[in-house]
Structures are given as C-alpha cells and as structure tokens.
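Annotators were shown the component list below and the corresponding predicted structure, then asked to write short factual statements about the assembly.
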Amino acid sequence: MPPRYYERDTSFIPAHDQPSTLLDLMLGRRIDADRALRGSGLFYDDILTGRRSISPQQYLALVDNARRLLPGEDGSFLFGQRIWPGHYGAASQALRHAATVRDALDLLARRHALLSPLATPRLWRDDRYVWLYWTDGCGAAPQWRFLAEAACAGVVALCREISGQRLPWEFFFRHERPRHVEQYWVHLGRELRFAQPLDLMRLPRHCELQACPVALPTVAQVAAQQSEEQAQALGADASFLDRVYDHLRERVCEAPSLEQVAQAFGVSPATLKRKLGKHGTGFQEQYDQVRMHVALQLFLVRGCNNEQVADYLHFHDAANFRRSFKRWTGHAPSALRPALEGAGNRA
Amino acid sequence: MKAALSSRPMTDRLAPTAPGLRAQAYANLHRHMWKLLALLACANAGLLAYLGAGAPKPWAEIDWMDVAGEGGSALFALVWFAMLLKARPAGRVTNLLALGLGCIFFSLWMDVLDEFIALPDAWVWDNWLESGPMPLGWLTVTIGLYHWHQEQLAINAQMEKRESLFREHRLFDALTPLARADYLRRQLDMALAQSRRDRQPLSLVAVDLDGFGAINRRYGPEEGDAVLLAVSQLLLLNLRAQDLLCRLAGDRFVVLLPHTGEAQAWRMADELRASVRHLAHRTREHGERLHLRAAVSVVMAVRESGEELLDRLNHSFLADGEPVPALA
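Structure shown to annotators:
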C-alpha cells in the first residue's frame, strides 16, 4: 500500500486554489508577481493553466514572501478571511452549506489536506466547549505565526458567514503579545491570551450547535461525501507529521520508541529520523508535543489531576511530570490551568 | 506574463500603495528627463570647449587629491539632483531646486576638468565657467528652499486631522490616507501627557463598520478598500481641526479627541455614526448603493497609560456590534 501521507516536498496542492488566493492578495496590494513568487519555483503562467500542483514547501515559500512583502500587519488576517469556504470544489461546498458550525469544523478537521494543508486543525469537545487547536503539519517554523493567525481569522470568518453572527471565540496563542495586538482585536475578537502552550481557540458548545441560516443540509451531506473522492484523488489525507502525531497520540500510554514507530511506518529508524529532520523536527520533540497536548486535554477536558495525568503518561511520579511539563510549556501545570480553564477573563 | 498582469483592473486604484508610489517615482524621473539631458548637454559642452581650447595635462601633473575632492563633490551634487527629480512632481519649487543644483554641479564639473586639461593663460573664460555658476546655484537653491517651506505649510494644512505634532512616514497606512496604530500610540502618549499638564479631559472614539466582511465577500476586496477610503474621508469631514483620525486595523477607526469630555465625545461619536449611515456609497462596478452602518464606542482617559486606554476602548465593543448569542 502506498503511503497515505504527504511530505514537505510532495506536490499535491493545486496552485490555483489556496496559493492563488494568497497571490491575488499580494497582487491586489500591488506587489509584482515575480517578487510574490520568488523562491517558490512557480511562474504566473503555470498557475493560469489550472493544472499545476505544488508542494507544501513551495506554498511555504509563497507564505514567506507574503509575510515579508505585504504592507501593514494585517496580511495574515486578510488572507485567513479569504481561504474558507473558498473555491475548492466539493469540500468548499460542504463547508458553505454546512447545517451547523459543528459540521463545518468537523469537515475542516477531516478534510484538512484539501482545506488547510499546512496548519492541521484538531478538535476536542467537552460538555462546555469545543476546542480547536492547530499543529504544524509541514515544518513551517518561521512562517508558523502567519499561518496560525490566518487559520484563526479563517475560522472566525467562516463561522460568521455560515452562522450569520460573530461567535464568541476565545483565543490562546503560543507567541508573546504582539505589538500590533489591535489586528487581533479587530479581526479575531477581544478574548485573547498570549504566551500559552499551544495555538488554540474555543467556543461554547451551544454556539456550534445552532442551525445555520444558509444551510442546505442535503447538499452539504452529498458534497461532504464527494470531498472524500476529492481527497482520494489527492493521494493523501494527512501529512507525514500528522500521521506521526496521530500514531504517537494513540499509543502515548505505551511510551513508544523511535524503533517501534519506524516499524509501524514500515521504514528504518534512520529513514524515520531523516524524514523528521526534513520537516525541521525530531522524534523527541514530536513525542513531547503529543504528551503535552494529551496532558492539557486530560486537564481541561477530563478534569484530571497531576497524579492521574502522570500515571497515564507513564511518568514515575507527579513531581517528575510537573518538571517535564514545565520544560515543555515554560509553566507549571498549576500556573496554566486557571488561565485555560477560566471563562470570560482575558490577557 | 506581463500581458496577463497588466490586463488586471488595478490601474484605477484610488490610493497609491507603496509599490505604486515607487512606480510613480520612476514616472517622475521620466517627466524630468529633459532637465537631466540639459544638464548632461551643458557638461558635455563644457568638456568640448575645454578640449578645443586647451590640451590634456601629462599624467604626472595631475593633482589626484584635487580630483578626488572636486570630483566627489560633483558626484554628490549629481546624486542630489537625480534624487530631487525622482522624488518631486514637476513645478516651480522643483525647477528652482533643480536649476540651483544643476549650476552647482556644472561649476564643480568644470573644476574637475581643469585638473585634467591645461588651458592657455590667455583664455579667461575658464574662471567664469568654474566660479560663476557656483554662487548663482547656491542663491537659486536658497530661494527654492524658501518656497519649499511655503509649500510645506500648505501641505501641512491639507494633512490637518490626519497628522499632528510629529511626522513619521513609515507609520502611514498603506491603504487609506491615514496613519496607523503605531502612530496613534505615540500621539496618544504625547496627548495624554499634555492633557494631564493642562488638566483637560481627553477622549477616544472608535468607529467600526458593520458587515464589512460581507462587503468584501460580495463585491470583492477592491470594493472593500474603496469603502474604507470613502469612510476615512467622510470621518475627516466630521472632525475638528485639533482631532486626529487613524485607522487602527481592518475596518476600525480611532479618533483622538483632545480637550473633550465623555459627554461631548459621545455626541461626536453619534454624529460620526449618523454620517456613516447617511453615506450613499456606490460600488465602482455597477454603481449599486451600499448601506453602511457603524458601531461606535467612547472612552475618556482616567489615570491610565495609552495602551490601557486603547485596550479599554476596544473591549467596550461587543463583537462587531451584533449581539453575542445568549448562554443556554
């Protein structure tokens, strides 16, 4: 069976879809097409043929140009507001006519190879909130903040369009409070916290369950099924890093080793290491990230205490876990939990 | 590819963005081309006159120190001349400055040539050519600078309500003719200090367009940009001379109102809101009337920093002016 994942250098993203949205934003701001495409290995004429596929790496080069060339600090937010529902065939149609915000978010997570190939959306739900957080699917370190801002602005704009109202999303960002925080106020909303362990947004559950006024549930359902075929034609529905994340997430209780993971992926440990290195990361970093996310999920969604989480993650004792947690996030669990759990307060 | 790009309907954009201005600068240079050519023709004529009258000096007689000093000065005069033509639109002030700098360059150029070409003693014109244009050039540049000052005063009057106290072009907005949030922050800190010294109130008004995202989606981002431009001009018309209007981000504008209490600020905010509602903006494509609405919010400074005040202003907005769904 061929690998059902895409890597940083797999060409599968239609250049005339999302990359063109970004390109048009730059052209609209009078940035020359040659400068906008520099370093991406793409030519404007190639895109116009409508048959060119590009790799995440090329898309990231374009994002990098946008980050540097777009005037003002709102480039990422403007891009985010234009990406969804978008014009990506059945997947976009299913988003546009989703019966509820919940359906749209589920589809976004399930079809992210089509809808968000660089930033992977992941969902948790508990009885109070739906939590949506973003992981780096293609090793986008320098461009990550642009992507995270765009992704959050995109979800806000999408929800607004299909639900007809601005939903009370709250935001948690890994980076420090930026100088241009006014862009966040205007494009995202007022509930913002910075210097958090992950890029996360959350919404009260009842908001995602309201029926959307523009919904066409049957159309959306059929389109969602068709997007399955669309994803199959793409050849992959998740990135290599997504697959590693999912694999580690499933087996986090068994404390899997590099060798075991390599075996599960059908490659040698050296190849696994090389592939991780290609995406700018390493096994321990990925494993730590998964453990940190699981720990947060257990805290926030299940309401576990330190001892239970330490036990679940195979730590020797709670003190050991606290130390590791502090290393992953820079904060002790006791310092983070009030900020993430508290409702309605802000940075 | 160029053909594909130039066919894009971008030529009639209202506000020149930074790259657009760059293109304009080259157009300026093109328009002034005859000035540059005239100067080069003069320099060439001087060279030919010297060569016709004198003979090249032998290598050993050339004083390289003089060549470096005079040549370097001439080069800088030429660079200033080119930068001036590139930066400024045609007009009286530009002509005066260009003429003055041209004279200075010519004078220095003849000085340099003098180092390479030995002229017969009987030839007295060289002194005139080297020293004559110099004082004339300085005089013309001085007159030009005086008129530039007058011109600047006229431009300052046009920038009223969009700029105060200090200038920093790097903080101008790329889209609207307003300054950005960083400029507002700096002005706000200065204005807060001033208001404390004068024991006068200071208020901020924020104006946020409703449904701006829908306009962008329905009519395209170009139309959204046009709306922002129209609204920024409209808001300017409704302000007093001492007020300062900035675009904070996206579709949110902030007005800094010195010497203004909260009640008066609310009155002005309501007037701004009413003016946006009554604006008959028509789309550029089909002339369709857009009905715009804005939400406003007001804060008055009380013993807090500029950043805290801005924070409070933006948090006093309910999300986009629309009701947040009630908790179940």
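Statements collected:
1. The beta strands of chain B are 55-56, 117-118, 202-209, 244-249, 252-258, 281-282, 289-290, 294-300.
2. The domain at 169-317 of chain B is CATH 3.30.70.270 (Alpha-Beta Plaits).
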